[in-house]
Design a protein that fits this description.
Metallo-beta-lactamase, Chain A, alpha/beta, six-stranded mixed β-sheet
């Protein structure tokens, strides 16, 4: 796949909530589906690139929070593209039980009280379900790279690792203020919620070790490897 670009899709403005397109002249892979009813925002970016919903070949859901998975079913209907996800978050995709959240600070605790993270979204069944440490090569979709389990933010978190060393990591980290984005987007930080910071550090460290040098995320970003290393050190230092 030549001339690969990562295009940020502003699900909410100022980098507050991002989805991403992995794009070239043959079409696109969508990484995260955004909030419910956000398909017009995605279409706007597709049209700007000369694409339509039918140009999307694959939908990758990095984890089961509503701002990443909330519009997955609708986008599958519009695009016809298969959805790939990890079994660790499958009960939440199926809406079999409510998601649990481990707040990382005051903003996360306050945000939970709004009820927004618990808002309903349409259940869906992933077409490609990864399990354990299973890795999915993206050659079938014309991309030099893989989808890899990167647990820590949630049990079923996934990241996309491209051969050109660009990484799309969902919510393994954030940058900016509050939810993420807005200001100070060059500064890494924890997202508002995180299940296991030790596993997050391990997931990020492995990507840095294999040469990852530009990290795209759901809130704020992108970040260079040096900034990600700084965040890893911060996570290690906070270990009990």
């Amino acid at each position: 796949m030549s001339n690969v670009q990562i295009i940020r899709i502003p699900i909410l403005p100022l980098g507050l909530v991002n989805a991403h397109l992995i794009f070239d002249e043959t079409g696109a892979v969508l990484v995260d589906a955004g909030l419910p009813d956000s398909e017009k925002r995605i279409l706007r970016v597709l049209n700007r690139m000369g694409l339509t919903f039918k140009s999307i070949r694959l939908i990758v859901i990095t984890h089961a929070h509503i701002d990443h998975a909330g519009n997955a079913l609708r986008l599958k209907q519009l695009t016809g593209a298969p959805i790939v996800a990890h079994e660790g978050d499958l009960p939440y995709y199926r809406r079999q039980r409510p998601m649990t959240y481990c707040a990382t600070g005051w903003f996360g605790r306050l945000f939970l009280k709004t009820g927004l993270m618990h808002a309903p979204f349409d259940a869906f069944e992933p077409d490609i379900l990864l399990s354990g440490d299973q890795v999915l090569k993206l050659d079938e979709w014309g991309i030099k790279g893989v989808i890899r389990p990167t647990p820590g933010h949630t049990e079923g978190s996934l990241s996309v690792e491209l051969e050109d060393r660009q990484m799309l990591v969902g919510d393994l980290l954030a940058s900016g203020i509050l939810l993420g984005g807005i200001l100070l987007t060059e500064r890494p930080k924890k997202p508002p919620f995180e299940d296991d910071p030790v596993r997050v550090a391990e997931s990020l460290e492995r990507m840095v070790d294999i040469g990852g040098d530009l990290f795209f995320m759901g809130h704020g970003g992108p970040l260079q490897a040096a900034q990600v290393k700084r965040h890893i050190r911060s996570l290690r230092e906070r270990r009990p």
